[in-house]
Design goal:
The structure is a homodimer.
Chain A: E1 24-28, E2 40-55, H1 63-72, E3 76-86, H2 92-110, E4 117-124, H3 132-143, H4 150-156, E5 165-173, E6 176-185, E7 198-203, H5 209-220, E8 238-243, H6 261-280, E9 288-296, H7 299-311, H8 313-320, H9 327-335, E10 346-349, E11 352-356, E12 359-360, H10 366-373, E13 377-383, E14 389-396, H11 400-406
Parallel strand pairs in A: 3-4, 7-8, 9-13
Antiparallel strand pairs in A: 1-2, 2-3, 2-8, 5-6, 6-7, 9-14, 10-11, 10-13, 11-12
């Protein structure tokens, strides 16, 4: 197991996950797989907190996913317990038993039903997870719960990540200030079919579970569902939104209530920031790539086309090499199966229009594009010429670092 | 532009493309992109020859593809002209004009309609192709046409390939010996949605175009459509089957005629061998990976599931690192969208059953699997547990070589 240096795309400064009223967290180092660093985190929210969630669509989901899906139907949460290093996937009945053991230990410590304890695991697939050390550590974890503990939790849930991830926003609901803070992990096995990451977002908004669920699902399309590192879809993707309901605003029961516009926007910002942090920490990433698609038949088509470009190893290696090989974008678009007009196709790298009218633009100056590609942040714009659908997706380049990390992950 | 060393998966010995009665070929070095090597090939078949073909399904196909699709409707061929280094894709009306110029030059030299001259181009996308040097070289090429020229043609059509590719078979139709020889190029931009390669197969069988077309289409599913290197689908995939009709067997007009069983089998063998040679020359490939899927709801589902595993960067890097990380196969299968039974899923690496019944097998010995993964040829077997559909697909590992080649392809 190698440790990679901090991604050159990482934000400057330390990770900060501001406290959310009513939300506490703690972390501990149990050496489940990683040594000398925290690897288990506990998040706690008060009695009566509401929960929303999104999970992987994998048909071989992890045992924690099966549990979380089941208890999410209640819409209530008291805690989330998370471990890094072992994903607890494909472990048969023992895998389910490990999840139950964790939930029961936390429930006993907090005095709540196990069905209010969410469980998430990330790491190696198909390796038996011994839940006993985690269960035994729960009293220590609960004793350490603190409102300023979210940053420590962000550090405990990482795997191949090279930096911990958090994003935060303040908004108002009906004139009352509300805080949103999210933490996430993710670096490889990142595909757009559900976040392919772990993300836990806490808020003190006083909103019921159905409202949270609707708002979370809406924002996922333009955040967690619009990023890709390698196109590989995880067994363990989990996004949870927990509301402590401590903010003293009036009750709002309709997700389309105009009083929720600011909250919806803040949630979208936090989700997009978390998603982008994952791309910035994509395994081996040296460049962040934003792909803007317009002129599609609809937004979904634009997103699918963008993701095919974003997942193309040939596009990603060309960007890694700062090679203005825009023909590979043509190839990927041709391959994506979405409607487009060859003669109406426009391709820009950075600000430079490279191709239009079915061919390269007269006087196209590749040196300008080469300078753009030499930077850390690359923008590709594609107009498909058949409608008004649009989407933006994000990915990273494909480099030797990806091979280094993944050819030796378990070793 | 870097030149890679010969793939360690290349067959031993030189490339040999045995002559086919009535079929001649020649090659020439025009320095269109590559220096000091032949880069244009001409294949000639006699008047009255029949043609069948399969082309990319890209919605941004190369200009030669548009031409070939149109003339294939006639079912007749006299020649194929091929160049390496420039794919003549996305070049607007000038791209179509370049194709016409090539076809007319060859037609004038051979005394046939331009509509019997197929054109294929491979290389950089979106770069204007100057057809004049090719057109001017046609008299030299026709003067050099020889029955033993197919090997030289195989050498002229390569791009990032590290070795030329040919496969051959002899069979009998109604007791009369018939020869099939195919040449191909392909290394990157190899996805299963049509060969993603150039392949030209010549035979002296006396078969009409509709019979050839049916037999070619049937065999593609288990050959060209069952390989992948990087999942990127080319703009230029072309497979042509040309029959000189010189073999003195009785006419056979029905593709299901039992007298064609041997020919169909020989064609399948040649196509599969060519397809496998492409995988063996996958950019950066150090290992050939065969993925056998059984127990799917049908053969198509088995093939799709196998290809998702074959295209998974995480599976491919694990194999590159000889890491028995079978959990990534579980991940890819979970992600593939095809029906499977988690509890019925069986995964084998080489001969070793690793997982069954929803978890790892008791007493599983990873050291045996590690030895298998250390070899040049790796076999993964997956039983999905929901039916009797089966398919085999082939890919290669994902290594630093792929990055090296593709981050600097045009430079």
């Amino acid at each position: 197991m190698t440790t990679s240096p901090r991604s050159p795309l990482a934000p400057e400064g330390p990770c900060e996950a501001p406290a959310v009223p009513g939300v506490r967290a703690a972390a501990i180092a149990l050496g489940l797989r990683y040594q000398g660093r925290p690897d288990v985190a506990l998040l706690e929210v008060p009695e009566g907190s509401a929960a929303a969630g999104l999970f992987t669509r994998s048909s071989t989901p992890g045992h924690p996913i099966l549990w979380c899906r089941r208890i999410l139907a209640r819409g209530r949460a008291r805690a989330v317990i998370v471990n890094a290093g072992n994903a607890n996937v494909f472990n048969g009945p023992a895998g389910d038993a490990a999840v139950a053991r964790e939930a029961e230990a936390v429930a006993a410590a907090l005095g709540c039903p196990p069905e209010e304890v969410f469980v998430a695991s990330t790491g190696v697939i198909g390796l038996a997870l011994d839940a006993e050390p985690i269960a035994r550590a729960v009293p220590t974890l609960t004793a350490g719960l603190a409102e300023d503990g979210l940053t420590a939790a962000a550090e405990a849930i990482v795997t191949t990540d090279t930096f911990p991830k958090a994003a935060s926003a303040i908004c108002a609901i009906d004139g009352v200030a509300v805080r949103l803070t999210g933490i996430a992990k993710g670096s490889g096995m990142i595909a757009p079919d559900m976040a392919t990451m772990l993300a836990f977002i806490a808020t003190d908004a006083d909103l019921p579970a159905p409202v949270l669920q609707t708002l979370l699902a809406r924002t996922a399309a333009t955040s967690f569902h619009s990023i890709t590192v390698d196109g590989d879809g995880s067994t363990s993707d989990t996004v949870l939104l927990l509301a402590s309901r401590r903010a003293p605003h009036d009750a709002v029961g309709d997700p389309d209530d105009p009083r929720l516009a600011g909250f919806a926007e803040a949630l979208a910002t936090v989700c997009r920031e978390l998603a982008l942090l994952v791309v910035r920490d994509g395994e081996g990433a040296q460049k962040l790539v934003e792909i803007r698609v317009t002129g599609a038949v609809d937004d979904g088509s634009a997103r699918r086309a963008g993701l095919v470009v974003a997942n193309s190893p040939l596009v990603k290696t060309a960007i890694a090499g700062a090679d203005a090989n825009w023909g590979r974008v043509v190839m990927a678009l041709g391959h994506c199966g979405e409607p487009l007009a060859v003669d109406g196709l426009e391709i820009r790298f950075g600000e430079t229009l490279i191709s239009a009218g079915g061919g390269v633009v007269d006087g196209y100056d590749e040196s300008v594009v080469a300078r753009h590609l030499a930077g850390r942040e690359v923008v590709l714009e594609v107009a498909l010429g058949v409608g008004s659908g649009a989407a933006t997706v994000w990915t990273c380049d494909l480099t030797h670092g990806y091979i280094d990390i993944n050819a030796a992950y378990r070793s």
